[in-house]
Automatic annotation (TrEMBL):
The reaction(s) this protein catalyses: D-ribulose 5-phosphate = D-xylulose 5-phosphate
Purpose: Catalyzes the reversible epimerization of D-ribulose 5-phosphate to D-xylulose 5-phosphate.
Protein's organism: Aquipluma nitroreducens
Cofactor note (record): Binds 1 divalent metal cation per subunit.
Required co-factors: Mn(2+); a divalent metal cation; Fe(2+); Co(2+)
Family per similarity comment: Belongs to the ribulose-phosphate 3-epimerase family.
GO biological process, one term: pentose-phosphate shunt
Pathway membership, UniProt: Carbohydrate degradation
Protein name: Ribulose-phosphate 3-epimerase
Binding site for substrate: S7, H65, G141, F142, G143, G144, D174, G175, G176, G196, S197
EC number per UniProt: 5.1.3.1
EC main group: isomerase
One GO location term (cellular component): cytoplasm
Amino acid sequence: MKLVAPSILAANFNRLGEEVEMLNRSEADFVHCDVMDGVFVPNISFGIPIIQAVNQISIKPLDVHLMIVNPDKYISDFFKAGASIITVHYEACTHLHRTIQQIKSLGIKASVCLNPHSPVALLEDIISELDMVLLMSVNPGFGGQLFIENTYQKVVALKEMILKRNLKTQIEVDGGVNFEVGKKLYESGVDILVAGSFVFNANSPIETIAALKKL
């Protein structure tokens, strides 16, 4: 199944409610929410109040990506704000298994993200606990970056790891997604495409989302 999670990081925050209502009308499967703290990544985006506000409007599940240090402290807060999926970074978690168990204990999906420099082999001992793996195909922190080509090979390796264990773990990729990249990612084994600028800067975001799902 080809799924799309538009990232509201690229939305017009002067009319964020309208942007979320547009996603409600679209074929988007999730609303991707990039939370950045200015410490783990060199940018500050938004936090719990925005997640709460989006959740009040959205009929789509919120896919919350925590690009923050010490995510364990805030998992319960983001769950209460409306997260259906919480993604933490491998690079930010000292006790990753404990963090994943904390997320799953809330009855929501648990996901781990790998930065571009982190090999998928790092997930060998945790993959069976994960509902999803998010691979960053750009360096996290800013939208509009160019896709890192090595991501295709990482997707293939991760898919092999998942199939070898007969798991249902989904693969999500975030960064530099367009029609050409998206098609190759789906062919490589990706389940969910995150698209920010490509969707929200399009003449018709709704048509762009529909086209991404048909690649």
